[in-house]
Amino acid sequence: MSKSDKLIEVKDLRVSVEETEILKGINLSIHEGEVHAIMGPNGSGKSTLANVIAGRPGYSVTGGDIVYKGQSLLEVEPEIRARSGIFLAFQYPVELPGVRTWQFLKSAIDAVRKENGEDELSVREFDQLLEEKRNLVEMDPDLVKRSVNEGFSGGEKKRNEILQLALLDPSLALLDETDSGLDIDALRIVSHGVNVFKSPEKSVLIVTHYQRILDYITPDFVHVLVDGRIVRSGDSKLALELEEKGYEWVRESVGEEVNS
Amino acid sequence: MADQKVISRQTGVEDSQYKWGFELDIESDVAPKGLNEDIVRFISAKKKEPEWLLEWRLKAFRHWTDQGDEAAPKWAQVNFEEIDFQDIIYYAAPKSGDDAPKSLDEVDPELLEAFDKLGIPLEEQKKLSGVAVDAVLDSVSVATTYQDMLKEAGVIFCPISEAVQKYPELVQKYLGSVVPYSDNFYATLNSAVFSDGSFCYVPPGVRCPIELMTYFRINVADSGQFERTLIIADEGSYVSYLEGCTAPMRKSHQLHAAVVELVALKDAEIKYSTLQNWYPGDKNGEGGVFNFVTKRGAARGENSKISWTQVETGSAITWKYPSVILQGDNSVGEFYSVALVNNYQQADTGTKMIHVGKNTKSTIIAKGISAGKAENTYRGQVSILPGADNARNFTQCDSLLIGDECGAHTVPYIEVRNPTAQMGHEATTSKVNDDQLFYLQQRGIDLEESNYMIINGFCRGIFKELPFEFAMEASQLLRVSLEGTVG
pLDDT for B225-236, tens place per residue? Predict the structure, then answer.
């Protein structure tokens, strides 16, 4: 598995929000074709990790580095990160009143294409692509005519995120609690979208509280994040063990290690 | 394509955000500065006006002098140095305008070229498709396109000075019937010195086959522009009218005090759209147009409808309240507005809906955007008079703030004198949200474009009220006006 190239490496990353340290030295490497899951209790910092990789303002990186495709990301604007293949599926996709979903999707795909020296898609080409990807996530065709996420149900918003993932076809997909609030059908659809995206060149980082989504998307690695540190890493069995024993179990076992 | 040209007016001063700021090189016939009875007579004589109109002007002038400068309205939330009304040129006309051209072929080619440069092609082969344009430069109308097609439909669309000659009974009947000469300080001034503007009459049962447009341009330095527009939609008729405006960049302020009167008779509908892009002044608030305008429509007949849509991005100061008097039973009044202010611009704008007839209905949707150090005020009045049974009004005012040095204010006046009225008022104030910006950026869209998309979305409900080409241009105007507001 390690024969493939390293896509992203998080090195001893420390991140604070308003003086409070959230991430306390994270190390994580993701190679091409790998699916990693970060699990952890609420407030452990797992969403922070995904957002910092995507370049969300409001976080200060106080130490360490994030190296993506061989280059440090720390000084790179969020839109440039996006165009170079980093995609964040949001935990809470925002509503954009008056911004038509169709227009938004086309602007996004054209921005990425332009960065790669490609021409903008014609309306016809884009409509064909959109139709194909929309079917993948079983999204109501009327939704693309409406304002972005405005009046969408929770499930529709998440499916819209996966539609964007499918359209933009990035190198690294960061799924920030994409499973939260989804019923079983929506979870199945969303997972299917991610599984179609997966390939030997693409990598996925799933941030989740529950093991549930990992029944649908099998991770190669599972990391448990507690209080800003990765306290345990393993394969997909770790997720099942966590589900069975709860986060207290990791906390306790970590405590034991620290104490001993 | 001619209409594409309007959408991307890629002419003008390069390193400035105001792309319409160049001066047209046109020789002009200019009256001496200052205002007195002789100037009023001079204007009237230049226009070869009948006696009644001169008398009306003089009445207005005397009313204006009698009340003095103190009568200038002070209640608006705008600050500016007192205007010296004796330091303004009240009449400026392109030289060639003296012998008015009979057809476009006779229009001075330099003038045509000048308007072409502004993105308003007037020549027959390049005309805006589906839009009849009346071009007004400083004090006179220089050309009106599509005359033949309009004539066939029986629609009169011409400079008001020409209407005074050709259709005096129509002009005399309706001029001042919605905005009387004594209405307010600036309307009174306009009544005394108005130079030109557009006149439109749509006969009974006629649906005007094309959009009518007047394009206003202030060119001569230190000149004021005082146009007067009068639109009459006779019984069962329909007309859609557009107005666009620009001015050169100048260090001094220019005064624009227009009056627009609309009359809709039984079952008639008038749709009036404005893209106001007068020079807003520079980044430090120097220069720019004072836009003090009185616009009012009388929905006079049963089931008549008047709809105002305005996109206000220009002017140093905007003071205007396009209003509807809902006289006819079941008449409808609408006001859709986007007012954007940046740098040191000030806008105090809104509407008045005066419900007189029964079952009258009005809708007000006003979107204010403030950036830089600018101040934006929505001021609106809704009055339900005693006889207006079952009147309904819905008002929505949304303000959007960009940065933390600008201001947004909402001042609604509501007067209900009939207990059957139904009123609704909603107001919101918001900032462009960081989460929204990041969401767009995370999809590869840069910060400036993201900002534009959010603000354009905020205005979309208004833009969709505009005719298609105008909606595209409104979006472009918004983009240009927003340049440099983020980052």
Answer: 788 999 999 999
Closest chain B residue to A84, measured at CA: B444
Check: CATH 3.20.20.70 for A6-259?
no
Q: 3-class DSSP state for residue A162? A: helix
Give me Rg for the CA atoms of chain A: 18
Q: Which of B327, B280, B53, B42 is nearest to B164 (CA)?
A: B53
Q: Which residues of B164-190 are buried (b: 16+ CB within 10 A; e: fewer)?
A: beebeebbeebbbebbebebbbbbbbb
The residue of chain B nearest to residue A98, with distances taken between CA atoms, is B457
- Tell me what ipTM this predicted complex has: 0.95
Q: Which residues of chain A have a Cβ shorter than 8 Å from any chain B Cβ?
A: 54-58, 77-79, 82-83, 87-88, 90, 93-94, 96-99, 103-104, 107-108, 111-112, 115, 147, 164, 168
Residues B453-465: tens digit of each pLDDT: 999 999 988 988 8
pLDDT band of residue B386 (cuts 50, 70, 90) is: very high
Q: Which two tokens stand for residue A3?
A: 């024969």
Full DSSP string of B24-40? P---EEEPPBS-SHHHH
B278 and B305 Cβ atoms separated by less than 8 Å? no
**Side-chain-facing half-sphere of A17: CA atoms under 13 Å:** 14
What is the spatial distance between Cα A193 and Cα B152, in angstroms, rounded to a whole number? 60
Contacts of A96 in chain B (CB under 8 A): 436, 439-440, 453-454, 457
**Residue A62 backbone class (left: φ over 0; alpha: ψ -120 to 50; beta: rest):** alpha
Report the distance separating Cα A175 and Cα A192, nearest Å.
Answer: 14
For residue A77, pLDDT over 50 is answered with yes
- In tens, the pLDDT along B394-422 reads 999 999 998 888 889 999 999 999 999 99
Residue B308 confidence (pLDDT) above 70: yes
pLDDT bucket at A259, cuts 50 / 70 / 90: very low
Q: Give me the total of CB pairs closer than 8 Å, taking one residue from chain A and one from chain B.
A: 76
Chain B positions with Cβ closer than 8 Å to A: 433-436, 438-447, 449, 453-454, 456-461
Quick one: what percent of chain B has pLDDT higher than 90? 44
Element (H, E) at A35: strand A35-39
Domain boundaries, chain A: 6-259
Task: Between B92 and A33, name the one with better pLDDT.
Answer: A33
Closest CA to A84 of A105, A96, A70: A70
Q: Taking residues B241-258, what's their average pLDDT?
A: 76
Residues of A in contact with B456 (CB under 8 A): 98-99
Short-list B476, B332, B339, CA closest to B407: B339
For residue A83, list chain B residues with Cβ-Cβ distance below 8 A.
Answer: 444
Q: Which residues contact B348 (CB under 8 A, 6 or more apart)?
A: B76, B77, B78, B317, B318, B319, B377, B379
pLDDT over threshold 60, residue B320:
yes
CB atoms near residue B390 (< 10 Å): 16
